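TASK: fixed-backbone design
INPUT:
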């Protein structure tokens, strides 16, 4: 398979690229990535020498470029997106542009190139807040943030392309993912890197909102399983049943680093904060996938990785990062009052 992997220099995309090259000797990969603040060529450093990998610096909204790359490949796996909910609350426009319009550009190119498979990497956030029970693939989409609405908008287009053109799209809806190479704005890498530096860990609201955490290697394997064994036209949830709240995330991180609980700072809640997501992933399990990393072991592995790779994350926690951080957290009195904010 010759794959066009968009967003392949990001967190999950780069794991998928490294895994594909390591496990499928007959596959080659073209990565198309805009290298936004979240994209990082260093994520591909372990495989950049590989002749089966080609990196193209560009935007998925560039229709001419995408059409050329689609003609050279057999299938697109679309990881490219703006991905952080807090940033979508501050500046929604680029989420609509990349996540919705970019998906349209990719599907048009795949359709005209005659691809037989297209995989859209989506999120459990499209279901919206689920206070009880577990979301199944046939459930209604009720997104509540600009980020989740842009991902759901992309899915609406996928659905329309399936119905209108018989477009062979597969969708994965993954839950919260963590592990090495994650930009330090999401809760786990933010808390690990803050705790290493004895900075406060800002917990939104009561810290009781629940997420189902999946390790990045398990998520990448799920996308690979759906790409190769899934049925075009179908959607697949990717979750582990690890229902963990923010207080436990903070506790595990602090324990792994031997840091005090006094670093936890309860701050004003995220606007529109979804209190819980939870997935029924039995449809994916039936394809032969099962998660291999348990939550506590995943946290220990991830903490170790960030301790051993300060050269990777310290340069990211500078300039633009602190501008965003101050905009997002500074107005929250509990944090502004903290020493070493
Ligand atoms: P990320 O933010 O780490 O990486 C996104 C990548 O997309 C970056 O390399 C960035 O440079 C690239 N990109 C952004 N805009 C682009 C554009 N216009 N053209 C080309 N490249 C562009 O994201 P991630 O956490 O690895 O998420 C990957 C995908 O998985 C996203 O679609 C996201 O919605 C989805 N997802 C993420 C999670 C999670 O917890 N991280 C969970 C479920 C689903
Ligand atoms: O569920 C899948 C989604 O998970 C992906 O689609 C998104 O791309 C990804 O960013 C993630 O979204 P969340 O909003 O759930 O992740 P985040 O790490 O931002 O927040 C996880 C939980 O932790 C959530 O309940 C909010 C809370 N939180 C987050 C941050 C950044 C805090 O309490 N404090 C924080 O500083």
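OUTPUT:
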């Amino acid at each position: 398979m010759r794959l066009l992997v968009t967003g392949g220099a990001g967190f999950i995309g780069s794991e998928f690229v490294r895994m594909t090259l390591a496990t499928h000797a007959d596959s080659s990969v073209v990565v198309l990535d805009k290298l936004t603040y979240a994209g990082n060529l260093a994520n591909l450093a372990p495989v950049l020498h590989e002749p089966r990998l080609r990196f193209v610096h560009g935007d998925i909204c560039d229709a001419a470029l995408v059409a050329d790359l689609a003609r050279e490949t057999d299938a697109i796996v679309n990881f490219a997106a703006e991905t952080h909910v807090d940033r979508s609350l501050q500046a929604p426009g680029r989420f609509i542009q990349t996540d919705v319009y970019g998906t349209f550009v990719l599907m048009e190119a795949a359709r005209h190139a005659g691809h037989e498979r297209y995989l859209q990497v989506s999120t459990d956030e499209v279901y919206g807040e689920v206070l009880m029970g577990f979301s199944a693939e046939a459930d209604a989409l009720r997104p509540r943030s600009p980020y989740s609405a842009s991902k759901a908008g992309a899915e609406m287009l996928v659905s329309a392309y399936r119905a209108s053109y018989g477009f062979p799209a597969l969708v994965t809806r993954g839950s919260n993912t963590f592990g090495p190479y994650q930009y330090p704005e999401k809760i786990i890498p933010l808390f690990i890197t803050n705790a290493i530096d004895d900075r406060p860990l800002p917990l939104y609201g009561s810290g009781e909102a629940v997420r189902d955490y999946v390790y990045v290697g398990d998520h990448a394997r799920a996308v690979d399983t759906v790409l190769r064994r899934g049925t075009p036209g179908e959607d697949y949830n990717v979750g582990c049943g690890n229902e963990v709240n923010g207080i436990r995330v903070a506790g595990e991180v602090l324990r792994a680093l031997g840091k005090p609980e006094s670093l936890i700072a309860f701050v004003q809640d995220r606007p529109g904060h979804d209190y819980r997501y939870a997935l029924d992933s039995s449809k994916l399990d039936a394809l032969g996938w099962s998660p291999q990393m348990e939550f506590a072991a995943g946290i220990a592995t991830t903490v170790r990785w960030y301790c051993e790779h300060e050269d990777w994350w310290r340069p990211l926690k500078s300039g633009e990062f602190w501008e965003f951080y101050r905009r997002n957290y500074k107005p929250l009195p509990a944090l502004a009052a903290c020493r070493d904010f």
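COMMENT: The pocket of DAU (ligand 2) is lined by residues 83-85, 123-125, 175-176, 186-187, 190, 202-204, 209, 211, 246, 270, 277 (CB under 6 Å).
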